[in-house]
Amino acid sequence: MAINLQKGQTIDLRKNDKGEDVYNLSSVTIGLGWDVRKKGSGLLGKLFGEREDEYDLDAIAFLLDRNGKVADLGRTVHVGGRQVILYQGDVIYFNSMKHPSGHIWLTGDNRTGDGDGDDEQIIVKLDSLDEKFQKILFVVSIYQGKQKNQHFGMVENAFIRAVDARGKEITRYNLSGDYTMNGMCSMVFAEAYRKDGGWKFRAIGEPYQTDSFVEILRKYIYQ
Q1: Which residues of 171-201 are buried (b: 16+ CB within 10 A; e: fewer)?
Q2: CA dihedral over 121, 126, 129, 135, signed as positive or negative
Q3: Which residue ranges of the chain lie beneath pLDDT 70?
Q4: Which of 43, 91, 127, 141: disulfide with 186, CB 3.0–4.6 Å?
Q5: What's the rounded Cα separation, in Å, for the pair 99 and 92?
Q6: 123: closest CA among 70, 63, 65, 163?
Q7: Rg of the chain, C-alpha, whole Å
Q8: Are 109 and 32 in contact (CB under 8 A)?
Q9: Up-side HSE of residue 110: CA atoms within 13 Å toward CB?
Q10: Of 115, 114, 180, 106, nearest to 140 (Cα)?
Q11: What is the reported pLDDT for 138?
Q12: What is the pLDDT of residue 195?
């Protein structure tokens, strides 16, 4: 049975709620999902299901070394006439979706959050990941959130979950926006980190006002 986490809670990814080693970490899917709250709760809102403008939430992963830093920031390239930063480095995001090692990748960009299940997925081969990577930080940002006045206060039914190689859900952390999330356009959802030869998973739920994950990344780079 999957473990439902509370903010700040940590579990061992290989163990179930009985403490038994049951999960296969050769390939772990980190799934993220969300809904956008409908405008108004009155009769018209219920009849027409009017929604906020389309939200584009992006999932990002930072691969951190033993010092808690991103050691490889990749390179800057030009694709289709535009500049792409952090390409093929230790940051997995919509413009650099697969790590050069092949052991962690982003499956694709869902621009609406519509439908049930995961809206975005990051897949990581935890058992194969190089020892130099001690922690993975999972971040979600609302693209152009500041410009469009979009924030986590309008996001509901948000979650992050971990599913093992056999499709068994290991754990889930549910987080829905309320007034305390107003103006917050990014969120550090959770982290996975090495401990005693295994992997732990911790629910974080730390909001940021910025809509740029690069601003959060600044805390995790060598100066």
Answers
A1: bbbebebeeebeebbbbbbbbbbbeeeebbb
A2: positive
A3: 1, 39-53, 109-116
A4: 141
A5: 7
A6: 163
A7: 18
A8: no
A9: 19
A10: 106
A11: 97
A12: 96
